[in-house]
Amino acid sequence: MAKILVVTSGKGGVGKTTTSAAIGTGLALRGHKTVIVDFDVGLRNLDLIMGCERRVVYDFVNVVNGEATLTQALIKDKRLENLFVLAASQTRDKDALTVEGVEKVMKELSENFEYVVCDSPAGIEKGAHLAMYFADEAIVVTNPEVSSVRDSDRMLGLLASKSRRAEEGGDPIKEHLLLTRYNPERVTKGEMLGVDDVEEILAIRLIGVIPESQAVLKASNQGVPVILDDQSDAGQAYSDAVDRLLGKEVAHRFLDVQKKGFLQRLFGGRE
Amino acid sequence: MSQADLLDQAPVFQLKGSMLAITVMELAQYSIEQLDQQLAEKVAQAPNFFSNTPLILALDKLPESEEELDLAALMAVCRKHGLRTLAVRASNEAHIAAANALDLPVLPPSGARERVIDPTAGQAEKKPEKPPAPAEPEHKPTKIITSPVRGGQQVYAQGGDLIVLAAVSSGAELLADGNIHVYGPMRGRALAGVKGNLKARIFCKQLGAEMLSIAGHYKVAEDLRRDPLWGDAVHVCLSGELLNITRL
After folding, report:
1. What are the φ and ψ backbone dihedral angles of B183, each rounded to 5 degrees?
2. CATH number for the domain harbouring residue A35
3. pLDDT at position B112, please?
4. Of A35, A49, A247, B238, which one is least surrounded by beta carbons within 10 A?
5. pLDDT, tens digit, for every residue of A250-262?
6. Distance of residue B175 Cα from the nearest chain A Cα, in angstroms
7. Range(s) of the domain holding residue A75
8. Which ipTM value was assigned to this complex?
9. Is residue A271 part of a domain?
10. Do A154 and B171 touch (CB under 8 A)?
């Protein structure tokens, strides 16, 4: 049976899809057969970030409606042997998904994969609810600012009360906090919430801090998951997060302001 | 075998034991006229009580006398006032014979405790054919929450106290008819005594609440923040119409 992970946040634009792509790719890099499922029906993005947008024929809604089989709809990644993508439909909306339909697809994916990564849409409505409903673990993506933290808190409440595990009285969903777009310099200046503040408010296990990085935008535009850019700080931070997700103890990096070298200070160079 | 035969073999009855609360009328002396008169007075006080009420007529406390007891007449008086005699309780052989003559069941003298019924008392007494409801416990069990209460969640402890052993996020709401205790950081709203209990109190280990309210008297974060005890362990109670915040 596969482990079902949901990447969720409540708030939009915090980096859910970037994270889904990076974590899914990271798991596949470590030899786990992984599928990333885009639940954002109507606003599909995952295929772009994974760089497989030109190969989408059938999508999630087709499979839910029985218009295509999973084998037809799964898109195999060109870079990694054991990584697959199930794209969302661009022409439909979130009402096209049903609990029964999603359950059927999740069950079938569970039999063939080790990890199912569900990329949740923003919000707390139907799409987001279905994305987290069948999850075993959740990665809550949060930006270090108050509105994102508040939305994540709301989402954590829903994970604890509205998931299948909660409704059937099973073990609760394991929750992980992933802080993205973190800028230590702005934290020092007091313009951004620090890691400690967010951890204190949300009170769940921190799985990683992804620094704000040019590499993320570049990777998105190129359709390469940022975790494959192992020279970048964001790529390395995602890599650490995947290791922690798999139970490894890895010290957190990129939390402090990088001291600028003498020449950098002299010429006011920027990274 | 026809269907009718099959039906014949189906059990027609089932025996069940049951405890019923039944009114017992214990006669202290034998006087049909006085009984009639005194019953009439009782009926005037509590007409609801006397409407086809099942009754055990207890004759065992009657003083020994030579006078012969007219059981049929006694029952007629009872019936006139709405009491239906189910059986008699008797130890005297003459009384038992009289009951047998009327084909009325005879119960042995009671050793069990019995309470005196006042038919004019509360609702529960009005329907003695039903067993009286067990007394409501005075305190409902305290509701204890061990996982964080997140924004958008609402917890209500009806009829009792609420204890939260984890963080309460901003946007979360705690409600209780009794007291509220929060042993994690308290950043949400707490409303104690929501049904108007002025004596309800709120206890926080770390006051950071958006709002505190006791029986409808409240303070919002803007006022709470100015309090020197903001962030500390506090105890909140109502004095007059003002929330009083004191250090724990």
Report:
1. -100, 0
2. 3.40.50.300
3. 55
4. A247
5. 999 988 887 666 6
6. 17
7. 1-266
8. 0.78
9. no
10. yes
